[in-house]
Amino acid sequence: MKKVFVVMLVLVLVVSMIGCSAAQKYPKKQITLVIQAAPGGASDTVSRTVAGLMEKKLGVPVVGVNKTGAAGSVAMSYVKESKADGYTIGYVPVELSMVKALGYADISPKDYDLLGRAIVIPAAVTVKSDSPWKTLDDLIAYAKENPSKLKAGNSGTGSIWHIAACALEDTSGIKLNHVPFDGAAPAVAALLGGHVDVVTVSPSEVLSGVKSGELRVLGVMGAERSALIPDVPTLKESGLNANVVAWGGFAAPKGLPKEVREKLIESVKEAINSDDFKNLCEKRGMDHAYQDPGEFEKFATEQFDFYNTLIPKLGLKK
Fold first, then answer.
1. Residues 6+ apart with CB under 8 A from 130
2. Is residue 51 within 8 Å of residue 90, measured between CB atoms?
3. In this predicted model, which residue has the larger pLDDT, 171 or 109?
4. What's the pTM value of the predicted model, to 2 decimals?
5. Which of 39, 85, 238, 307 meets the CB 3.0–4.6 Å disulfide criterion with 98?
6. Would you tell me how many other CB atoms lie within 10 Å of the CB of residue 157?
7. Residue 171: exposed, middle, or buried by beta-carbon count in 10 A (0-12, 13-18, 19+)?
8. pLDDT tens for each residue of 168-185
9. What fold does the segment set 29-120+247-314 form as a domain?
10. What dotted CATH number matches 124-220?
11. What is the domain partition of the chain in residue ranges?
12. What pLDDT was estimated at residue 12?
């Protein structure tokens, strides 16, 4: 009996040593970071900045790959189904908590090993500066007189910026004509080109247009004014109860080896809490909002429950 116990103990030690050896070798090759939105928008900027900072910690390239479509479902499904070896990770936006209710994919926060939350961003109701709408009241008054005439660009049907526009409709009693794009950047380009009349995207994604004098932000859909455009009132200040924010973080396929998961969590935390990333947030009008994996899972699950109530109410299920 004692002999059997000794043999079993040796086997356990060998397996443990092999596991530790494998973890010490991680990472041995390039890590792919899957981004759910088109190049140029907030998700892409955050992802590629964090990827570059993670490289310094991990010692291997962390390469961003854009996979757009279905409110982020294409990218998040790809990550979910990837091998849980630490070589494929993904940026997960607020849509992680929305796509199941929308009917796009059977995805929830519990399907991933969450690595950390990075940011929170309010929606900004934006028009061209040469438009006739100088205030949010002007826009709403026009929309009420012309139901479904205003073309509202968003970052994809069912995306958070689409939900933001729907929330604006719901709280103000207007009706918009929603025009989806594969990300916020192409939606803003369409606004600049006169192909849509208004967008509800992040302040950072319209900042260059605001600075150039081509765009005007009429209202911010957050609890507080944006530090990036402090002169612009919140919708609440305008008498409207519409508080819609985007958020984003990082995740990996469920079931990472413990040591690999710990290395990824540490590299993500270090990147997000770096001065470089905090400076990016300040410059681009994003709220730096790091949460560790446990906090992030709790938050994302609460958001999942919230949107699984709101989205059916808005009639947005696919």
1. none
2. no
3. 109
4. 0.76
5. 307
6. 16
7. middle
8. 998 999 999 999 998 899
9. D-Maltodextrin-Binding Protein; domain 2 (3.40.190)
10. 3.40.190.10
11. 29-120+247-314, 124-220
12. 45
